[in-house]
Amino acid sequence: MKQNRWTVLFAGMLLMMSLGTIYSWSLYTQPLICSFGWSTSTTTCAFSLAIFFLGLGALAGGRLQDRIGPRRVALAGAVLWGAGNALAGLGTPHLGAGCLYLTYGVMGGFGVGMGYVTSVAVVTKWFPRQRGLGSGIVVTGFGFGAVVYNLVVKSLPSFRSAAAAAAQHAKALHVGGQMHAVMNVLTLSGVAFLVLGVLGACLLHNPTPAAHGAEEASAAGQGHSYTPRQMLATSQFYFLWSMLFLNVTAATRCPSFRSSPALRLPLSPRPTEGSRCSMRSAAFFGELSPTGSGARTRSRSFSWCRRWFFS
């Protein structure tokens, strides 16, 4: 039983690492601006759409995984996310921003939401008496995936060259192959996400009642089970919703901070009021970001929500 439990946890982390790369969008912001001559709002709109449809995908995935099982939902999420990235890399040079919005934003974002909620739901079922531990570990993979992906992409010579050209505000379209280098990285990333995500999704499954019935019954005796209608009538639900809202708001602001030239302040031996304000903002959003203490807050929130339904 322990082996199956930890195998499922590892699979959830594997899927989460693939999905968490959505927070690495800032890697592409400046190269896309210079490659296509887009404005910052045009480029970041793809990320905004992805986050919006992530929420819709989580809502749909949560409902579907209770009906058809977690594996199918997780597989659909992994395929949508991987295919969305690959199609964005292939189609954007020919079809423009609309293709990027539809593939990366709508398709990819919806897939991330489906896979995210399914991973957390499955793992907490395997850890009925340690939901905080299970959900905390699997959510860590979401932030860890972005960190690893950033390191890998920045180590690629072709992408590093394109990023350097973008940093110098050069027109990458007129520098041999720079635009194609960026799009190739996005396409190959989609293939990698697809393989990694499908591998993790195939190992996800709910525990059998016979194997975990006693442990579930023991955990159920520790609290009261709420229906969705009863949950919506509690003040705790709205506090938790507000916590998650602030957490996700902070996380989605991080790519904008890193990509905005206006926020690249010069170093000064004596910090000005503006630099102090920027440092306070960075500290605040860093605490709420996916790799900061906000990740721990988010895992606790999921644990409490799961307790209302399954304890």
Polypeptide structure, described:
With about 300 residues, the protein is mainly alpha-helical. The chain has one domain: Growth Hormone, Chain: A. About 80% of the residues lie in helices and about 0% in strands. It contains 13 helices and no strands. It has helices at about 1-20, 25-35, 40-70, 70-95, 95-125, 130-155, 155-165, 180-200, 210-220, 230, 235-260, 275-290, 295-310. The longest helix is centred in the middle third of the chain and has 30 residues, at about 95-125. The two termini are about 20 Å apart. About 45% of the residues are buried.
Short descriptors:
mainly alpha, 0% strand, globular, disordered C terminus
Brief account:
This protein has 311 residues and is mostly helical. It is 80% helix and 0% strand. The longest helix has 30 residues, at 97-126.
How many domains is the backbone divided into? 1
**Span between N and C termini?**
20 Å
- Radius of gyration over C-alpha positions, nearest whole angstrom: 21 Å
Using the coordinates above, name the CATH class: Mainly Alpha
Major β-sheet profile: none
Q: Could you spell the SSE succession in H and E letters?
A: HHHHHHHHHHHHH
Proportion of beta-strand residues: under 5%
User: What is the mean pLDDT?
Assistant: 78
Low-confidence stretches: 170-176, 259-297, 306-311
